């Protein structure tokens, strides 16, 4: 960056910064936030015109046609969620990602369990994302996390997510926690815990600092599901069996406690 620009950086008016930053790529904007307090303050406003332009350029227009992104209120948060959404190159061959970029569709293929992972994995920090299941659950509907080594498709109707030592999941059909091919108890720990109803919002909370995985349903914390997670790179993951079912995932960022 030009030394003269750095010298005068703190005194550049916001309207001029907006014009300059509108020509930059995301990586450049990250670097600009480190130049001085003035630039950092400007870029910390996640709803300014710079982030609005970036969001509208990169997030598909279809994503704004319903309330899917209402859980991430700022333009920068919506952009961040898009970069964390389902990975079209890391899903079963029976799954495709819809034009909105956030929703997977499982094709009606018999005798197959099909899954998808998110684009970005996590190894440090605390992360939360929302999963919304649209359509019947069938016999298997599992939400959780997996490493890159976990299978993403298998023959038959099978609790794929949680079937090996590389994945951890909660089967919404029978409220069982699954890992390494075993059931690890009923979840949540309630007498006659209510089953998931299609359309309810599930939030997954991964704490890589405490090595735990937890869930919320309709903004109610359900308790810690898994502890002592290994030091691995984890990806948001789901597994489904029902034809034409659709599952949306929106990354929220660090979870809000309380």
TrEMBL record:
Pathway: Protein modification; protein ubiquitination
Top-level taxonomic group: Eukaryota
SMART domains hit by this protein: FBOX (SM00256), SPRY (SM00449)
Record GO biological process: negative regulation of nervous system development; proteasome-mediated ubiquitin-dependent protein catabolic process; protein ubiquitination; synapse assembly involved in innervation
Cellular component terms (Gene Ontology): SCF ubiquitin ligase complex; synapse
Protein keywords: Neurogenesis, Synapse, Ubl conjugation pathway
Start and end residues of each B30.2/SPRY domain: 64-256
Compartment annotation: Synapse
F-box domain location: 6-54
Keyword Oxidoreductase appears in the UniProt entry: no
Keyword Secreted annotated: no
InterPro entries: B30.2/SPRY, B30.2/SPRY_sf, ConA-like_dom_sf, F-box-like_dom_sf, F-box_dom, FBXO45-Fsn/SPSB_families, SPRY_dom, SPRY_FBXO45
Family membership: Belongs to the FBXO45/Fsn family.
Record's subunit section: Component of an E3 ubiquitin ligase complex composed of hiw and Fsn.
Record's function text: Required in the presynaptic motoneuron to down-regulate the levels of wnd and restrain synaptic terminal growth at the neuromuscular junction (NMJ).
PANTHER family assigned to the protein according to its UniProt record, in alphabetical order: F-BOX_SPRY DOMAIN-CONTAINING PROTEIN 1 (PTHR12245:SF7), SPRY DOMAIN CONTAINING SOCS BOX PROTEIN (PTHR12245)
The protein's name: F-box/SPRY domain-containing protein 1
């Amino acid at each position: 960056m030009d030394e003269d620009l750095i010298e005068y950086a703190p005194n550049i008016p916001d309207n001029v910064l907006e014009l300059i930053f509108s020509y930059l790529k995301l990586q450049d904007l990250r670097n600009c936030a480190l130049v001085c307090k003035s630039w950092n303050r400007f870029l910390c406003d996640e709803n300014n015109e710079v982030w609005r332009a970036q969001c509208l350029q990169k997030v598909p227009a279809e994503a704004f046609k319903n309330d899917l992104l209402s859980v991430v209120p700022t333009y920068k948060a919506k952009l961040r969620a898009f970069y964390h959404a389902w990975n079209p190159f890391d899903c079963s061959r029976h799954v495709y990602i819809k034009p909105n970029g956030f929703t997977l569709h499982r094709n009606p293929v018999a005798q197959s369990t099909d899954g998808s992972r998110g684009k970005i994995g996590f190894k440090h920090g605390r992360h939360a994302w929302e999963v919304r299941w649209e359509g019947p659950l069938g016999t298997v509907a599992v939400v959780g996390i997996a490493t890159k080594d976990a299978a993403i498709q298998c023959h038959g109707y099978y609790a794929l997510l949680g079937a090996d030592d590389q994945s951890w999941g909660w089967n919404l059909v029978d409220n069982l926690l699954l890992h390494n091919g075993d059931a690890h108890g009923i979840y949540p720990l309630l007498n006659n815990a209510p089953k998931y109803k299609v359309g309810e919002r599930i939030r997954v909370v991964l704490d890589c600092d405490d090595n735990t995985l937890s869930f919320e349903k309709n903004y109610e914390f359900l308790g810690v599901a898994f502890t002592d997670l290994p030091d691995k790179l984890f990806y948001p993951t789901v597994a489904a069996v029902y034809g034409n079912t659709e599952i949306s995932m929106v990354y929220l960022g660090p979870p809000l406690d309380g």
